[in-house]
UniProtKB/TrEMBL annotation, chains A, B:
The lineage of its organism: Bacteria, Pseudomonadati, Planctomycetota, Planctomycetia, Planctomycetales. One of its GO terms (molecular function) is prephenate dehydrogenase (NAD+) activity. This is Prephenate dehydrogenase. The keyword Transmembrane applies. It comes from Planctopirus ephydatiae. It comes from the Bacteria. PANTHER family: PREPHENATE DEHYDROGENASE, PREPHENATE DEHYDROGENASE [NADP(+)]. PROSITE patterns: PDH_ADH. Residues 16-297 form the Prephenate/arogenate dehydrogenase domain.
Length: 297, 297
């Protein structure tokens, strides 16, 4: 044994003293667990509307303590993560902001960014004073609730950071936070984020739901792995997805129309017996999809 | 220990003496391995166009022996499985039939059935004499070649049997064969099979390829598990899928148009801000997709 190996113990000083997570569900719970296990914050406080759920999360070891009333927020809170459903994030931030130290970094985990930024423009935009940095950790799962949370949920995944109208130091601190949870970060404007995610996240959800939605009862028995994989994300919570899709409806409509057009090209190739065109369309998908696996490995 | 427990050794008499498999790839190789390990045939012969591939499959223990020339087919062959790509199955059957014992049961693993039945109508239809029973074992994988074959590929999966214009004894024997390989069987006419599979297999492939095909380079980094799952089957071999889609083009076009219409309903709900309709569309997919997992468990 060598005694001069670097030790893997906790860093002497955590990045944050007290992390406040509003919404201790799958994502919020995973943020709490990852921050705890990686010593990113000294103390982790959960917040939400349901005391019994927060109490259960505390007993399960997901959070250290919890509060319902903003008046109970610890004054030393220096990071606030809003992990509510996307249509409630602005309201949650407005509710909590008055109780926070003005230097407390504020971020979120929302799936869309333009509408949120508009709703918070007076607080956080060019005229605002709150150090709000929009974050979208691209990680999740089909099952809701902190019971399914995992401190490993973010490892190796990408987090988009939207630095619109925020001081660089706050952006850097936000990047450090997600990187400390195991993520790679990428900066995009809120608008670019929403256009990209309309295609990479919202479109596959709608495609999966549309595919599953037109399957007749009597043909369920002849579905194989292909149908199941292609429609798997449709099992996600529909109420949540209504909020996501509506908060980004224009880019989502554009991506849906692009998919319709691409399906139309397949229809045209089949109707005209154009094997070469059909092969090109299939290969465009095959090559691009294989590229995703290469990039991930 | 009790001595009167039933023994789990091989049945005294295998269902078939000699199984001939044309096309020793992923599916044909898996048929050979499953038939061997489950003692469904005494001897397993591979056939194909490439002696070096067949020799490699023999050395790998996938088949017992192989032949290239129909003249070399063992006279005791009593089951022939055509496991060639769907556009070559009719040709393969025509090539091999003259060398087979007239009582040899003939089946296939093709993804479409109507076109094949039409191509073989003179041999196998109402006027024909060959005991041909169309089979479609709904099992597979992204990777081609016997190197990826598995004797467990079929366990718990469904095999569609098309009994059009065949004597009942041949249909029963074909069902016994796939059941002995671990599958559940379901009977459908060739036409019903092709309509069902257009929706349950061919449509998800095209949807996945269309989705992957419209993803711009620069957004690859913000794809998550949702995009990857929904587009996974697009990694299947495009040349093979040209044959499948073209051999079933009319039902495939109909299923593509149904998907376009369903996507259009999502677009309409988003454009008119109709949250209730959007929720209904999402829930239709969520409920149906969850049903598939319940049925499988």
């Amino acid at each position: 044994m060598k005694s001069d190996l670097p030790t893997l113990s906790a860093p002497a000083t955590p990045l944050f003293d007290t992390l406040l997570v509003y919404g201790v569900g799958l994502l919020g719970g995973s943020v709490a667990l990852a921050a705890k296990s990686r010593h990113v914050a000294r103390h982790i406080v959960g917040m939400g509307r349901h005391a019994e759920r927060l109490s259960a999360a505390q007993r399960a070891g997901v959070i250290d303590s919890y509060c319902i009333d903003p008046a109970q927020i610890p004054p030393q809170t220096d990071l606030f993560v809003a992990a509510a459903p996307v249509d409630r994030i602005a309201g949650v931030i407005r509710e909590v902001i008055p109780a926070l130290n003005p230097n407390c970094l504020v971020t979120d985990v929302g799936s869309t960014k333009v509408e949120l930024a508009a709703h918070l423009a007076d607080l956080t935009g060019e005229q605002g004073t709150i150090p709000f940095v929009g974050s979208h950790p691209i990680a999740g799962g089909d099952k809701a609730g902190f019971e399914h949370a995992s401190g490993d949920l973010f490892i190796g995944r990408t987090c988009v950071i939207c630095p619109d109208h925020v001081v660089e130091s706050a952006v850097l601190k936000t990047e450090q936070f997600w990187q400390a949870l195991g993520m790679q970060t990428v900066r995009m404007s809120a608008q670019e984020h929403d256009e990209a995610l309309a295609t990479t996240s919202h479109l596959p959800h709608v495609a999966a739901a549309a595919l599953a939605g037109i399957l007749p009862d009597e043909w369920q028995i002849v579905t194989g792995a292909g149908f199941r994989d292609t429609s798997r994300v449709a099992m996600g919570p529909s109420e949540l997805w209504v909020s996501i899709l509506e908060s980004n409806w224009e880019p989502v409509v554009q991506s849906l129309e692009r998919l319709q057009n691409q399906l139309g090209a397949f229809i045209q190739a089949l109707k005209t017996n154009d094997s070469q065109k059909l092969l090109e369309l299939l290969q465009a998908g095959e090559i691009r999809r294989k590229q995703l696996d290469i990039d991930e490995s």
